[in-house]
Amino acid sequence: MITCVVHYTIDPGKIEAFERFGRCWMELVGRHGGTHHGYFLPAEGASDLALALFSFPGLAAYERYRELFGVDADFVAADRIRDESGCVVRYERTFMRPLLPEDVAPETGPKQ
């Protein structure tokens, strides 16, 4: 499994547009073989940081999904929300490999 972590700098005054953008991408990831773990938005205080996490079974599956960028009408429409609203100032992607609770064997727990 490969997990993409996207770090966003957003315009806090355009959070509603960012939420619309996020809802579209959550649906698209799911439709094309991935699992979206959600968008994490500022909750308190002034902040311009947001995160998104989504996983694909492997890099090949992620690359098939990426081939649709700029080509598939639904992908173009989702990006149009971002571009026309200006809700995203910048973003960067990082790929990670998750270690999940079900991956931890009982014998590796804390020693007493």
From TrEMBL:
Limits of the NIPSNAP domain: 7-99
UniProt-listed Pfam families: NIPSNAP
SUPFAM superfamilies in the cross-refs: Dimeric alpha+beta barrel (SSF54909)
Name listed for the protein in its UniProt record: NIPSNAP family protein
Organism, scientific name: Embleya scabrispora
Lineage of producing organism: Bacteria, Bacillati, Actinomycetota, Actinomycetes, Kitasatosporales
